[in-house]
Description:
This protein has a six-stranded mixed β-sheet with strand order 10-9-8-11-12-13, sandwiched between helices. Strands 1-16-5-14-7 form a five-stranded mixed β-sheet, covered by helices on one side. A four-stranded mixed β-sheet has the order 6-15-2-17. It contains nine helices and 17 strands. The chain starts with 13 loop residues before the first strand and ends in a 25-residue tail after the last helix. Helix 5 links the parallel strand 11 and strand 12. The radius of gyration is 22 Å and the shape is globular. Helix 4 packs parallel to helix 5 and helix 5 runs parallel beside helix 7. It is of the alpha/beta class. It has two domains: 119 residues, no CATH class; 192 residues, von Willebrand factor, type A domain (Rossmann fold).
Amino acid sequence: MILRGPNGAQKGSFRWVALLLILSAAWGNQIAAQDGGTPFTLHVYANLVQLPTLVLDSQHRLMAALDPRQFEVSLDSGRQFAPTHVRMEGEDPIDLAIVLDLSGSQDSLLKGFADAAADLVPGSLHPQDRIWVYAVNCSLIRYAEGAPATHDVLHRVLTNAVQRSSADKPHPGSSCSKPAPLWAVVATVVEQMTDAPGRRVMLVMSDGLDGGSKYGWAAVHYLAGTRGVALFGLLDVSDLRVRNFVRDPVPRDFRQLCESSGGIVMESSAKRLPATFQEFMAMLRGRYILEFPSPQRLTSGTHSVDVKLKRKRNAFIAVAGVTVAMRDPSVANDPTTIPSQAGADIPVGDKRPEVTR
């Protein structure tokens, strides 16, 4: 399932529509204070939508320093509107899951993977960021869950994952004749990241071939969108025969899954791996965060979000899914609640996405 606008992508441009999951209950905090012996309760309700938006040129290079007034948002193919605030993601905390395919197709990247990834600290990853590390062969093994992103931790965990799992490679005649299916692996990791507090990102080092999941890629797309996980692929193209005989070495479903969830597939080699990691982190830190109040016309369920630029026709735009809390009716009927018109003027269309689960 590819969610696009009503007329598809504009000519010369690349856009993906994200999923927006609206929950049925509002978030709230109570703060009690005392002034002159008179207690009171302040109710604070979060209703701000934040869309992590990746903007690249046609060569997949980061487009920075865009005029915030160029951004336009559309909900459920409705009338476009301008976000109330646009900023760079910058140093927002990140929860980064790294999934390593150890079946053999990515072996040349594995040799220097731990060194290249650990060198992202402290320049691109910081202690407030969290890492999740998985390796997959016959089965999926988790080596880190929400660990602080320090150089030592990242290097040790990745080295351990590669060394301990290399012996688990499938071979003919064994009880494990093929690696775990890719879509099932991605779905499992997405589920485990559901409660991660930072901006959720998954880097999947794989050839992008599924291998027989019970899930279709559309179901994984829906899951990643509703959990707010942006998927990035990393594909080894060290073997020049791949480029000589295959026009596009990236499987179509793998590319669509990543791009429709807010990421892209990156091609690299053992020599280029450190530079690829730096480009990857620059993309994350350089994403635009589009903010606007939760529209009052939204109903519970899944909605589509489309982001465009007014003048950049050659831009590639990928938006990560987000989850937003709806207003609790009891709050609106509470006589102590101060009415707010925030989000009342934001249009919502009537073309809800067709969801494949």
